[in-house]
Amino acid sequence: MLSHPSDPNCPYVRMSASVPATQHDLWDYLSLPKWDVTMKSMDPFYESVSIIDESKYGNTHMVLARKKTKRLLAFGKRDFTFISVSDLESMKYNVWISGTVSVVTQRIPRVKEYTR
Length: 116
What we know:
The structure is a single chain. By secondary structure, this protein is mainly beta. Helix content is 14%, strand content 41%. The protein contains 2 helices and 6 strands. The strands form 2 sheets. Strands 3-4-5-6 form a 4-stranded antiparallel β-sheet, with helices on one face. It has a two-stranded antiparallel sheet with strand order 1-2. A hairpin with a 2-residue loop joins strand 1 and strand 2. It is globular, with a radius of gyration of 16 Å. The two termini are 19 Å apart.
């Protein structure tokens, strides 16, 4: 877990990888609509994802989604609601800039028996 230099209260994770695939194939593989197939190979605790809403503003693409995971050892099942944000302009330069932010909203209440 890293801390943002200008805001120590904003933790984040930076990931990098060498993947034997084209960028288009990788972006396609990681797209939220394909998680029910692809995420199971990356996260053994993955249960499901629901896409709740999607919008585009200028060159920014936003997806509101909910991911559920199975019980992880001593921890309960997880209910993780998040917004995935992608910069569409960056893809013209073969770069994918995206991130997720966890959200809590009355519109999407916690599912009983899941921890949020």
